[in-house]
Amino acid sequence: SLQRNFKAIYHFIVNAFKRSNDVNMRIEALNTLSEYLKWIDLRNFSYCSISDVFYDLLICYKDFRVPILNCLIAILSRDDVAVDALMSQIFQKFLCIISSHLDLLKEEELIPSFVKILSKFICLDNCALMPNDLIAELMFEYTKSVDDPNLFSFIVDTWHHVTQCHMLSTNALPFSSNFILPLEITLCSRMY
Q1: Is the pLDDT of residue 114 over 90?
Q2: How much of the chain, in percent, has pLDDT values that exceed 90?
Q3: Where are the alpha helices (H) located in 38-110, listed in sequence order?
Q4: pLDDT of res. 169
Q5: Do 130 and 162 meet the contact criterion of CB atoms below 8 Å apart?
Q6: Is the pLDDT of residue 137 over 80?
Q7: What does 56-69 look like in DSSP terms, one character per residue?
Q8: How far is CA 134 from CA 8, 100, 107, 129, in A?
Q9: 22: phi then psi, degrees, rounded to nearest 5
Q10: Which of 14, 23, 144, 148 is the one with CA 20 to 30 A from 33?
């Protein structure tokens, strides 16, 4: 029933978001949407239209950043998500937004979400979106700076996956060779 009525539910959530002046209600609408995005058939709406809204809100409204990033994580965490033309567009828009707003990546409350999103993009479809030096550089910066042990473990798992995808199976680097030595030194220096 929820699957069949998703378009009506989606429009209700979007209308609640657009019409309400209550920040908490708008945040709850986004949180509800993120739960639906985990399982709903994504063909029910356009990736592009939803990603445009997400990225506009991410830039303009500080209160909505975490819920918006959670919506993106929900899409990227699905078992059925693959690199296709639309996902590539979402990725390119994400790169454009973060390269223009690098300050967002340093906001303490957003770091766990950005680490997860970068990791999901890196590992998506056996690293199909790599090589990409910007993503590698951002993940490298988080590798150096993240103190939370669980988040750091998540980062190490990402590098491990990248190694498996590229270096062992394709014998190619997923990023510029200038990252290898600094990454190796950083990872070794962070061993406890």
Answers
A1: yes
A2: 16
A3: 47-60, 65-76, 85-100
A4: 63
A5: yes
A6: yes
A7: HHHHH-GGGHHHHH
A8: 38, 12, 18, 12
A9: -80, 115
A10: 148
Report CA 64 to chain centroid distance, whole Å.
15
Token digits for 13? 């959530």
The first and second tokens of residue 84, run together, are 């296709």
State the burial class of residue 54 (Cβ atoms within 10 Å of its Cβ: 0-12, 13-18, 19+).
buried
Q: What are phi and psi of 21, to 5 degrees?
A: -95, -5
| Joined tokens for residue 179 | 């990252």
The amino acid that residue 153 corresponds to is S
Cα 168 to Cα 171: distance, rounded to the nearest angstrom: 5
- Comparing C-alpha atoms, which of 156, 139, 64 is closest to residue 109? 64
Residue 170 has what pLDDT?
63
H/E element, 182: helix 180-189
Q: Which of 118, 120, 131, 123 is nearest to 175 (CA)?
A: 131
